Amino acid sequence: MNIRGQIRSALVLLAIMTVLLGIAYPLAITGLAQVFFPGQANGSLITGSDGKVIGSALIGQNFTGPGYFHPRPSAAGASGYDATASGGSNLGPTNKKLIDIVNQRAIAYRQENGLAAGQLVPVDAVTASASGLDPDITPANAYLQAPRVAKARGMAEADVRSLVQKHTEGPVLGIFGESTVNVLELNLDLDRLSGRSGGGGG
Q1: Which residues contact 14 (CB under 8 A, 6 or more apart)?
Q2: Percent of residues, the chain, with pLDDT higher than 90
Q3: 117 and 18: one domain?
Q4: Which of the ends of the chain has fewer CB neighbours closer than 10 A, N or C?
């Protein structure tokens, strides 16, 4: 085969593979995702009672009011929770700056939740995730916040704890990872249950 024939064959193969892998395959996968997993395929978006998108179940948001469950700390962006600047602090476990930050967060966490000065706090309450946008906290973290949330909203603590249990997801396939609670979904359900705002969210 001469050079011209080889070039022709290569161009034909390139065109075929471009159509198959660059157009047909992506369209097929996108179509299947829309049919079988429409929510996940569109970003796991969450809408409010007015139908407007208020966030994603996959991206953490900051809630600061006493009537809301608070997420884990964020190192994404200058003020945290910046979806355009996802990332961790990259500080090692022996870094003095990280140790000081964790100690400060632990003190603040105990104070805002009415805990004893020496009480241990969940690690996710004082450390940021690798992405800085983790939407979940541990059940232990949520249960420690429950009394504060219940008091701020004038609700029975048992009702708030039941809501935490309702939103607790077990490990993937029962063995991978830990149990988690999605903060945004929990707070939205809390608003629906209490019928009022708890005093400010992110």
Answers
A1: none
A2: 49
A3: no
A4: N
CA distances from 67 to 166, 188, 194 (A): 18, 12, 10
Judgement on whether residues 68 and 26 belong to the same structural domain of the protein: no
Containing structural domain, residue 15? 3-38
> Is residue 114 assigned to a domain?
yes
Is the per-residue pLDDT at 101 higher than 60? yes
The mean pLDDT of 37-64, rounded to a whole number, is 74
The pTM (predicted TM-score) of the whole model is 0.76
In the chain, beta strands by DSSP E:
45-47, 53-56, 136-137, 168-169, 180-182
- Both 123 and 170 in a single domain? yes
Number of domains within the chain: 2
The pLDDT value recorded for residue 56 is 77
| Length of the chain (residues) | 202
Residue 94, both tokens: 């022996």
Cα Rg of the chain, angstroms: 23
- pLDDT band at 49; cut points 50, 70, 90: low
Q: What does the pLDDT read at residue 198?
A: 41
Residue appearing with tokens 């309450």: 125
The residues, any chain, with a CB within 8 Å of residue 146's CB and separated by 6 or more, are: 157, 160, 161, 164
At 166, the pLDDT band (50, 70, 90 cuts) reads very high
C-alpha dist (Å) from residue 81 to 63, 85, 120, 199: 10, 8, 25, 20
